[in-house]
Amino acid sequence: MHSNFSVISRLIPGAIVNFAWKEPLVVFYDNILTDQEINLIINKATPRFRKSMVAGKNGEPEEDKSRTSDTAWISSSEDKVLASVVQKVVSLTGFSIKNTESIGVNRYRSGQYFNPHYDFLEEQQLSGAPHFRGCQRAGTILIYLSDVEEGGETVFARDGFLDGYFLYDENNPDHLRVKPKRGRVLVWYDMHPYTEAIDLRTLHGGSPVIQGCAQSFKAFFLSGCSITHLESLKHLRSSLNKPLQDFDMLKRLAGMQKTRIARSPSEEDANFSGGQMNPSGDGSTTSPGRTPVRLELLLNQ
């Protein structure tokens, strides 16, 4: 089994893993990237920004009013430092770097948004675009490159959208809102681990930026081209099949000597939303009947 938690513990001191949702599995990581690495990505992307596109019915990119951001495309092959950043981030997921799509850096200015959508591709899109080679998007990784004063959250609401509008309910445990935080890495899986089917529960969107500018790095992991991807996905998600309150299981999964586990996020680190507002006032929430878990991974000493 590929233990992404062990990789984190070896490479990144003080990294924090936040299990936001179990089904579908949504995880975000803090303290992963350095300021130097983030600035490198931004500097590479800034001169290349163009109007964002979406995958059309035939799989080819096209403009759509549902997405109002700008996007720049960069490649890990153009810079050794950038390549090491991508490799480090991919190591969090259990996927192979060989089957990642091109990296998109997105910029959302005040008032810009990305309406509710899925990242996986429909059959017509897969067959119509040769560059996908019949491979489905099995997972998504999103890195927030900037803090945002207000708005810009990534929202998973399942049934919380109507005609493209966000109907996020902070008291609904089936709704999740992840706040942008510079250097935060958000990972979710677009395919079900057991049926290998697309997971309709991954409906998500980017809420409008109210104040500030949101920049993010996004990449997709492809399945169907390599069994390694799907097997890694199965192992990772099945390992989390027990309740998240099973702290002993989490410790075994982390595979390390020094692990701190908190039942609720601290005021400094709490940034995921899925229910009742946290009185800290930082925009975080805790869900009714759901115990947030923060697993702090420290280097073995």
UniProtKB/TrEMBL annotation:
* Superkingdom as given in the UniProt entry: Eukaryota
Q: Is the Oxidoreductase keyword given for this protein? A: yes
- What is the designated name of this protein? Putative prolyl 4-hydroxylase 7
Identify the keywords attached in UniProt to this record, alphabetized.
Dioxygenase, Iron, Metal-binding, Oxidoreductase
InterPro entries, alphabetized = Oxoglu/Fe-dep_dioxygenase_dom, P4HA-like, Pro_4_hyd_alph, Pro_4_hyd_alph_FE2OG_OXY
Name the cofactor(s): L-ascorbate
Q: What is the scientific name of the source organism?
A: Gracilariopsis chorda
Q: Pfam families this protein is in?
A: 2OG-FeII_Oxy_3 (PF13640)
Compositional bias annotation for Polar residues? 273-289
Domain annotation Fe2OG dioxygenase: ranges: 99-224
Q: Which stretches does the entry tag as region Disordered?
A: 260-293
Which Gene Ontology cellular component annotation is one that this UniProt entry carries? endoplasmic reticulum
